[in-house]
Structures are given as C-alpha cells and as structure tokens.
Design a protein that fits this description.
By secondary structure, this protein is α+β, with helices and mostly antiparallel strands. 37% of the residues lie in helices and 13% in strands.
C-alpha cells in the first residue's frame, strides 16, 4: 500500500493518513416538484425539476478544489484510478455534482491533456440502478419495521406537540397551496420548493412572508430529525444509515489490517441531504439542521507515530470557513482509536437487516416517507 506523510491541520504531530471516505450532498438544484397552486411550473426551470443548476456546478467545482488542496501529498497530484473510487446515486444531480467535483480535483496535467482548449479530463463515476441502491439512498422503502417505527414516531409526545403548536400554520398552508397532505412530514417539500424559487429570483406568493418561511424551516428541520432520530434512533439507524456506516467501517478496517493490500486511498460518495443525515444519525453527531448544498462529511483513518490507527471526522457545511468543523463521536476524542470507533458504533450496525425489517406486531402504514432530495 502506498502511504505518504500527511501533516495534520489541527495538530503538529506528523502522521500518515491511510484512507478516507467523503460523503457529500449534490449542489444547488431546481425544486423536486411544484405545489398545486404554484405560479411556477417545470417549464420555468432550464432543465426541469430536480436538476443541478450552474450555481450547483460551481459549488462542487469549489469543493473539489478544496479537497485537492486538503489532500495534497496524500493523493497523487494527477488522477490515479487506483487511489480514488467515486460512487453516486443514479440521479442526474448527484452524477453531475460528482463530475463537477472531479473537474475541480483533477484538472489534467501534461500527458493527461487530450484537448489543449479543455482543462478537463473524464474520470469514471460508478452507480447502480435506483431500485438496487442500498448504500446511499435513504430512507430505504423496503423495510416494514421502519414504516412501523415512523408510525410510532407520529404518536410520540414531541411529534404531537409540534403538530399542535403549528396547527394553524399547517392549515393555512393546506388552504393556500392546495396540498391535501400538508403535515409535519411533508412540509419539507413545500419549504424546498419555495426556497429554490426564492434563491433563483422568483417572486413568492404574498402569503409567503419571511416569518412563514422561518416557521416552515423549523418544521422542515424537525422532519429531518424524525427520519432517523428522535424516537428509537438506534433501531432506525440499524435499518437505514447503519448500512452505509458498516461499509465505511469495513473500508477503514481493511486499510488498517496488517497484511492490507488496499490501494484505494479515498472513497467518495455523491448523494443527498438525507444520506448525510442517515450517516450522521448513525454516528449520533447530527446537528439537527438540513445539510446544505455541497456539504461534505469527511472520515479519515490515520496511523499515529506509535502505530495506533485513529479515526478523525470533519464536517464542511460552511464555505465561509476555511477549515471544516472537527466532529467527535460521542464517548471518544476527536482522534478516536479505530477499535473504540468500531465498538462505539456497534449498536447501529445491522447484523441481519432482513430479519430486523420484519414487522414486530400488527401495524398500519399511514405515512409517505419518501424524503430523497
């Protein structure tokens, strides 16, 4: 395995980074859909609904440049197919985000240049069909027990309390938008549409005041929290984000094995806000806020001078700050020994998901939990 000295940014101790996983959300996009009374239709967006905008392309190009700079001396200067593997969901905006990101990371040098007028080179991005995706698209809809847990979540005190507090607003939203299923679980969709329209200079209807947007934002963030947390977090995570965490831990453990022949230094996952939330809830580090466009959760494996392997995590959700925020696994230091990291996350790693997904007792499905955006 090729390793290179990698000077840590927050510590002066020289150590070696063995492998890294990067999970990021796609960049700025058009809304996923319009609401019934929406004055703007799909034809008002250059490529229609759910598509990466030019702003989103710029955001990921910038993130790619940031990653290039951060991992100088760890990754080769030029693209090396043995060192980096990119996996995306099979969705236009995540595939395009990965392409823009790689354009920022690996502009062609020397013999890589195939057209002198083009500062770009093709780099493979791997994906699987949406109906086969079990690693990056959450919440997975194939799990009756998860549906049961979401139904139970709706009966908890905190959920009923939020429904009661915001009853008036939800009723107003239902009347103004024509959305029959306006509730705490579906409100993110409306907020998202209004947010996208405003960000792209489209004037909102008169009822959409800044106060209404602020309240919708609170409900939208709560909608993210209940997906994998709030109620029975560990069990929800075993059925959802624990799948991705399990894969990342296997990557780290393989790289740290004494006879490791792993060449890949960086696994990159291009996905969605719900993917980041699913992973961060499994790690118990979610801050309760929707991950912004092009936000990136970094997980790094380092070998210290004494030979001990440690895991360090960072979250880049603010491009105005030069360094990403350090993230600590609860119960461990920010430089968490790999074995401690494995032990502390064991409860959310699925052992037999098919069995765990079976219904415990009779339950009815009342909710639509398709949150991917």
């Amino acid at each position: 395995m090729f390793v290179s000295p990698f000077q840590l940014f927050s510590f002066s101790l020289l150590c070696i980074e063995y492998v890294g996983s990067k999970l990021y959300r796609h960049g700025d996009r058009s809304p996923i859909k319009a609401y019934p009374t929406d004055p703007y239709k799909e034809s008002d967006w250059p490529q229609g609904f759910g598509q990466l905008s030019q702003e989103g392309m710029k955001q990921h190009f910038e993130l790619g440049q940031f990653l290039k700079k951060r991992y100088t001396g760890f990754l080769s200067e030029d693209y090396d197919r043995h060192e980096i593997f990119i996996r995306s969901t099979d969705v236009d905006r995540t595939l395009m985000s990965a392409e823009a990101n790689l354009a920022g990371m690996f502009p062609p040098n020397g013999s890589e240049v195939f057209n002198p007028d083009l500062k770009w080179q093709p780099i493979p991005i791997h994906t699987v069909p949406a109906d086969e995706e079990r690693l990056l698209s959450f919440p997975l809809e194939d799990c009756p027990r998860y549906t049961q847990l979401m139904n139970e979540t709706e009966k908890t005190g905190i959920f009923l309390n939020m429904t009661e507090i915001y009853k008036g607003l939800i009723e107003m939203v239902r009347n103004k938008t024509g959305l029959e299923k306006a509730n705490i679980e579906t409100i993110w969709s409306l907020y998202d549409t209004l947010f996208c329209e405003a960000k792209h200079g489209m004037r909102p209807p008169d009822w959409v005041t800044s106060s209404v947007m602020e309240t919708l934002k609170v409900l939208k963030n709560f909608g993210f929290q209940i997906l994998f947390g709030v109620y029975k977090r560990k069990e929800k995570c075993r059925l959802q984000g624990g799948l991705l965490l399990d894969q990342i831990i296997k990557n780290l453990s393989n790289a740290a094995a004494p006879d490791s022949k792993q060449e890949v230094k960086m696994m990159v996952y291009s996905a969605h806000d719900t993917t980041i939330v699913a992973l961060q809830e499994a790690l118990n580090v979610f801050n309760g806020l929707q991950p912004p466009y092009a936000s990136c959760h970094l997980i790094e494996l380092h070998q210290e001078e004494n030979g001990l392997f440690t895991v360090q995590m960072f979250y880049r959700n603010d491009t105005n700050v030069s360094e990403p925020y350090p993230v600590s696994l609860p119960g461990c230091s920010q430089r968490c020994p790999l074995q401690d990291f494995v032990n502390l996350t064991r409860e959310v790693i699925p052992q037999d998901r098919n069995k765990d997904c079976q219904i415990r007792k009779e339950a009815t499905d009342t909710g639509d939990h398709n949150h991917l955006h």
